[in-house]
Amino acid sequence: MALHLNLLHEEILEQRQRHRDPLKIGILLLAGCGVLLFLYYGWNVYQTLQAKARLSAVERDWAKVEPQVTEAQKRAAELTNIINTTRVLDSYADDRFLWAPVLEKISHCVAPNAQLTAIEGAVQDDDKGVTLVIQGVAAAHEPRSAAEDLRQVLLEQLGQSYREVKVEFKALDDVETVTKVDGAAMPMARYTIAVSFKGNSAPKPAPAPGRSKRKNESS
Amino acid sequence: MNLPKLNPDQIKKLSLSVIGFVFLLYVYFTFFLGPLNKSHQATEAAIVDRQRKIDTSKGEMSKAANLERQAKDATSRFSALKALSPEGAPIAWFPPRIKTLFADQKIDKAVARLESATTPKEAELAGWTKYNWLIELPQTDYASLGQAVAALENTEPLLCITKLSIHPVPDQPQFQQAAIAASTVIEKQ
Q1: Hey, what's the torsion of the CAs at B118, B121, B127, B131, to 10 degrees?
Q2: How far is CA A172 from the centre of its chain?
Q3: N or C: which end of chain A has fewer CB within 10 A?
Q4: Are A111 and A136 spatial neighbours (Cβ–Cβ below 8 Å)?
């Protein structure tokens, strides 16, 4: 076996110690970590920039759509308002009480031996009930029964078209005056009849989107 | 494992390096990566928000288009109801219109007076005003009056007669005098 003499022992040891210098190793480790962190940061920056680019694209799309959306929302609100207002106006027109048919019915109820002198009518605000006060005179052999006939006919005629019809005498008095009916002298009675009823013949169904227009047919 | 023996100077430097490394990490996460991540998250949130708005807007636009189709009848009816009221103050055009209407029904004398103007109770009619009128007919006959009332109610769908009074004319019992209290709703000008 050959004999090796290491004459540079101290230099080699020094060199090895330099290689295993913890400070140097630490610095290398630190630098390695730094590089890794830098790369990770770069990756994050790249992702963020990509997200910003996507956001810009979406913002551009939104900028194109936004005026149309605002316009559509405005129009939708306007249309909703129109629909609601029209519905209320239609119900206002449909639910109102029509007087012409009542006047026509009353005219059909009056016999030749009866006369109306005054009519007062009103629609109640709360329940849309209608009240009428009819004054007049009746002439017959039995003037009171002539007035009663008028009351009965009113009850019958109004009952055909309206609900909860009540026709009652408020006053019925004999009058001294005598009048001629078909050439015969007849005693007279003065009457005041109170009439009340509900405006519509049947309860209304729920408001429908379409509108069925109710018209006066007495003209 | 043989750990190299460190002299005090090396230990000092190593300690300083460790402290420096920790500080570096702090700076890195606090001032670099943290704000970057926050910015990224905010951007992603903004994208989601905008995207949601765009998706919702498509729904809104289709809803508005559907509503437009559905509201065709209501819109034309609304226009027709609005067209019933001419421009200007109702007190300027309503009485002449009533006078003309009754004149067409052979009732020459008709006077319409404005009694009051109120705001309707319905919230939907916020842009409308309720006018209460008193229409006086000093001389008419029952048949003509009935026909005139029918014409009035048919031509004025937003007019509602609230009171009606018919009495004979004192000196001419063959004629009647009538008073009609009516209310109309008219759009505010």
Answers
A1: -30
A2: 49
A3: N
A4: no
| Closest Cα in chain A, distance from residue B42 (Å) | 10
B75 CB near a chain A CB, below 8 Å? Answer: yes
CA distance A64 to chain B (A): 10
Q: Describe the strand order of the beta sheet including B159-169 as a list of residue ranges.
A: A163-181, A184-198, A129-139, A114-123, B159-169, B172-187, B128-140, B111-118
Phi-psi region of A139 (alpha: psi -120 to 50; beta: other; left: phi over 0): beta
φ and ψ of B186, to 5 deg: -130, 140
Residue carrying structure tokens 């421009």: B87
Where exactly are the structural domains of chain A?
12-95, 100-198
Query: Which helix or strand (DSSP H or E) is residue B57 part of?
Result: helix B34-70
Q: What is the ipTM of this complex?
A: 0.76
Q: Give, in order, the Cα–Cα distances in Å from B153 to each of A61, B11, B108, B157.
A: 55, 108, 18, 6
Structure token digits, residue B96: 């002449």
How distant is the Cα of B39 from the closest Cα of chain A, in angstroms? 7
B151 touches chain A (CB under 8 A): yes
Residue with structure tokens 């004192």?
A: B170
Q: Yes or no: is domain A100-198 CATH 3.40.50?
A: no
Written as tens digits, the pLDDT of chain B (189 aa) is 455 667 788 788 778 878 888 888 899 999 999 999 999 999 999 999 999 999 888 888 888 888 888 888 889 999 998 888 888 899 999 999 999 999 999 998 899 999 999 999 888 888 899 999 999 999 999 999 999 999 999 999 999 999 999 999 888 878 899 999 999 999 987
Instruction: Write out chain B residues lying below 8 Å of A104, CB-based.
Output: 146
Task: Check CB contact of B154 with chain A, cutoff 8 Å.
Answer: yes
Whole-number pLDDT of residue A168: 95
* Contact status of A215 with chain B (Cβ, < 8 Å): yes
CA–CA dist B139, B148 (Å, integer) = 13
pLDDT, mean of residues A97-126: 91
Dmax over CA atoms of chain B, in Å, equals 140
User: Is the pLDDT confidence value at A182 over 50?
Assistant: yes
Helices (H), chain A: 9-19, 22-95, 100-109, 143-161
